[in-house]
Design brief:
One of its GO terms (molecular function) is oxidoreductase activity. This is SDR family oxidoreductase. It comes from Nonomuraea rhodomycinica. Keywords: NAD, Oxidoreductase. There is one protein chain. The chain has a single domain, classed as NAD(P)-binding Rossmann-like Domain (Rossmann fold), CATH 3.40.50. The chain has a 7-stranded parallel sheet, sandwiched between helices. The chain is built from 7 helices and 7 strands. By secondary structure, it is α/β, with parallel strands linked by helices. It binds nicotinamide-adenine-dinucleotide (NAD).
Length: 242
C-alpha cells in the first residue's frame, strides 16, 4: 500500500492536531511531501521533528493572505481542507463574531483554498478532500454555525467537483465521533452518550478517518467525485425511539 502518494505534494489544513495530523502522517508515510497549515505553531513544530516529509506553516486559513503563502510553496496535487472551529451555543446565544469565526474557518477557508489552488491544480490534475461532519445531515442542539458550515461544505464539494472536473476530483468525508483534542471540552457523560449512539460502540480514531481521506485523495478513488463518505461507526444510521 505504501507509495500511493509518491512524488505528490499535499496541503493539509488544521494538520497540527487530531484528524488533520493523522492525515498528514498517513500521506507522508505513503510518499507525499506534506505542508501542514495550522494556527497552532507549537504543536506543529513538535510534529515536524518526527517526520521530515512534513513541513509546517503557521497561518489562519480563513485569511486570504495565508493562501498566497500556501501557493508560494509550489505545486499542490492534494488539498485536504480540514480545519474547523466549534463553539457550542444555541442560535440566540451565538454572537455574530462567533458565527463569522465558525463559518470563516469551517466554510470560507475551503472556498479560499479552492479559489487559489484549483486553477493550477486543474492544469496538472489532483484531488481535494474536505472534512465535513455528520452535523451536515443530523441536527444536534448547540451547533447552528458549525452545522451550517458543515452542510455548506457538502454543497461546496459537489459544486467544486462539477466546476473543476475532470482534472480535479473533489470529495468530502463526514466523520462521526472521533477521539481528538476537540473532545477535551466534553465530559464523560457526553462522551459515553456519543459512544452509545454508534453501532460500533466506540469512538473512532483519527487514523481511521485519515485512511478514508487518503483513499479519496488517492488514485484508488479514480471514479469517485462529488461524493460525501460517512465515517461515523454507524452513528447516523441509528435512532433510539425507546
Ligand atoms: N473529532 C470529531 O469527533 C469530529 C467529528 C466530525 C467532524 N470533525 C471534523 O474533523 C476536522 C478535524 O477535527 P479534529 O477533531 O481533528 O479537531 P482538532 O481540534 O484536533 O484539530 C483542529 C485543528 O484545526 C486548527 N485550526 C483551528 N482554526 C484554524 C485556523 N483558523 N486556521 C488554521 N488552522 C486552524 C487547530 O489549531 C487544530 O490543530 C474538523 O473539520 C472537524 O469539524 C471532527
Amino acid at each position: 500500500m505504501s507509495g500511493r502518494f509518491a512524488g505528490r505534494r499535499a496541503v493539509v489544513t488544521g494538520g497540527a492536531s487530531g484528524i488533520g495530523a493523522a492525515t498528514a502522517r498517513r500521506l507522508a508515510a505513503e510518499g507525499a511531501e506534506v505542508l501542514v497549515v495550522d494556527v497552532a505553531a507549537e504543536s506543529a513544530a513538535e510534529a515536524s521533528e518526527t517526520m521530515p516529509e512534513i513541513v509546517h506553516l503557521r497561518g489562519d486559513v480563513s485569511a486570504e493572505e495565508t493562501w498566497e503563502r500556501i501557493a508560494a510553496w509550489g505545486r499542490v496535487d492534494v488539498l485536504v481542507s480540514n480545519a474547523a472551529v466549534v463553539e457550542v451555543a444555541p442560535a440566540h446565544e451565538t454572537s455574530l463574531e462567533s458565527w463569522n469565526r465558525q463559518l470563516g474557518v469551517g466554510l470560507t477557508a475551503a472556498f479560499l483554498g479552492a479559489r487559489r489552488l484549483l486553477p493550477p491544480m486543474a492544469a496538472t490534475g489532483g484531488a481535494v478532500v474536505i472534512t465535513s461532519s455528520v452535523h451536515a445531515v443530523v441536527g444536534l442542539p448547540g451547533h447552528p454555525a458549525y452545522a451550517a458550515a458543515k452542510g455548506g461544505l457538502t454543497a461546496l464539494t459537489r459544486q467544486l467537483a462539477v466546476e473543476y472536473g475532470p482534472a480535479v476530483r473533489v470529495n468530502c468525508v463526514l466523520p462521526g465521533p472521533v477521539m481528538t483534542p476537540a473532545w477535551d471540552r466534553v465530559d464523560e457523560r457526553g462522551r459515553a452518550g456519543s459512544v452509545r449512539a454508534t453501532v460500533l460502540g466506540r469512538f473512532g480514531a483519527p487514523e481511521e478517518v485519515a485512511a478514508v481521506i487518503a483513499f479519496l485523495a488517492s488514485d484508488e478513488a479514480s471514479f469517485v467525485t462529488g461524493a460525501c463518505l460517512t465515517a461515523d461507526g454507524g452513528w447516523s444510521i441509528v435512532k433510539d425511539s425507546a
